[in-house]
């Protein structure tokens, strides 16, 4: 879902016209969303789970 957000709302991703541009941009988008999700999990989801499950 975050990858779809990047391609829908960020103009740099919307201007990609070739397959090679997409091959360069897509791994960057995946890595970016992975690290954002990891930070969210470590600082928000995990502490809330510990709080509610204990």
UniProtKB/TrEMBL annotation:
Transmembrane segments: 20-44
Record key words, sorted: Membrane, Transmembrane, Transmembrane helix
Highest taxon above the source species: Eukaryota
Full protein name: Uncharacterized protein
Organism per entry: Meloidogyne incognita
């Amino acid at each position: 879902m975050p990858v779809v957000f990047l391609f829908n709302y960020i103009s740099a991703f919307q201007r990609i016209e070739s397959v090679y541009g997409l091959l360069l941009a897509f791994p960057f988008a995946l890595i970016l969303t992975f690290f954002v999700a990891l930070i969210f999990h470590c600082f928000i989801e995990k502490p809330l789970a510990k709080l509610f499950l204990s």
